[in-house]
User: Fold this.
Amino acid sequence: MKRKHFKPHKNPKRGKGLPKPRIKVHFLGSAGEVTGSLILVEVFFGNFVVRFLFDVGLHQDNEAINRAYRLPHGIRPRDIDFIIISHAHIDHSGYLPKLVRDGFCGRVYTHRATKDLLRFMLADSARLQELAARLENERNGLRDLDDTADGAAGNAARFAPNGARRVYPLYTTRDAYKSMRFIKCVDYDLSYRVHRGIRIEFSQAAHILGAAVVSVTIGKGHGKRTICFTGNVGRDNMPFLKNLAIVREADYVISESTYGDKLHEEENRLAVLKNIINGAYERALPFDEEEGCGLIVIPAFAVSRVQTVLYDLRTLEARGDIPKMEVFLDSRMAIKATEVHRKHRSLYNDAARRLVERGIDPFRTAFYTECIKRSQSRLIDVPARKPRIVIGSSGMGAGGRILHHLERRLPSGKNTVIFVGYQGTGFLGHTLVNEKPREVLIHGNVIPVNATIEFMHGYSGHRDYKEMIGWFARFRRGPRMLFLVHGDKETLPKFKQHINQALPGLNVVIPRPRQCFVLD
Assistant:
């Protein structure tokens, strides 16, 4: 195997050899929950220690957790030698600017496609942090100050007349851009020396572009131990991405468990999408002067899900299975993400690469428009003489321009809304899909729901429990311990039970939040 070498960030005193490593793993995030991925590994080689993190995700359901000190007592961000980011989703990467702000100055290893996605995803996360802080301060009567992000304002500016303390963002856009300096790109299927006695290797995870399963080899000879961290892993035979790679050996596996209690419904994704689009097209055809023809609205996550939907729409059009319609991509983040997907063609599967070799853009339909400016987005509201499709984020209807289209289009029976993939409890998408309400609240307005609401299961980016067990079974020998993370409290015990039934004898452990394990 070709090997690449990185000069380690911290080079301990060299001796004749390394002693057998002693390894401690701290589950600081994603233990018993599906967010905030953060796992600290400490490796003790005799009289020196190496510390690194698997993922640095924001907790997306509890801001107080992000603002609390998340590392173990006595360990500071500057004590972390390096960080490994499995993929770009904010619940796996979005805590990085906070660690940089607080003193981390080591290297961050991730796939080069992930780095390209993080360039705008971390900046967008920072802007949301800044916006939330500014709005909270305005509500308390505190004007926005240029220097408040760095905490340089005087005491009089720190408190509102009502005594409320000024709120500062968790981190700023400056912190987000600064954090990019520390990222070192790695490729799949190459072994990299990241520290004396520690090597890493990334393999295809099939979750989103650039997502990786990470194998970390610690020590040599009889004392060598390998930890496999799955990050999030996707399903086989999805559009444009290669399938999940097989990992043959690991002493310890830290596995995601998102769908650990579920089986995906068996469905022909393209056939289902074809039927939904054709039905929506027929409903949208009647024309009137005020509304024009109907609109097909597809809320989708900006990274990977939007590109998958575009790929499928182009495929169906090329086959003649659906009419050729105007397709609007109305999300600046999704547009940036699509550009990154076009850049990394080497990551495509064989079918997508063949399209590129023929000069075909896999994500561009016949009549395709990217709405970079809001003025372009507003043109979608102009009455049209033919049905059209608009795709935008967020995938659960939580925000963004797609909310404007839902607000405008839900009242008419000529329109169709297609949700693709997971809809979290409490979000508009979940309400529309599961509760079938007659009206919903958007931007403070009560909106009647007369549009047809469709939901597709076939776009999940996670393997179900049967698919995960099939992947575990490909190990040449079972790992000493299999840790289950990134699953909710109800899912994890069920996943453990499924694994024990299918692979008896495997030591399956469900860590508690902040629990520490010493690995022999």
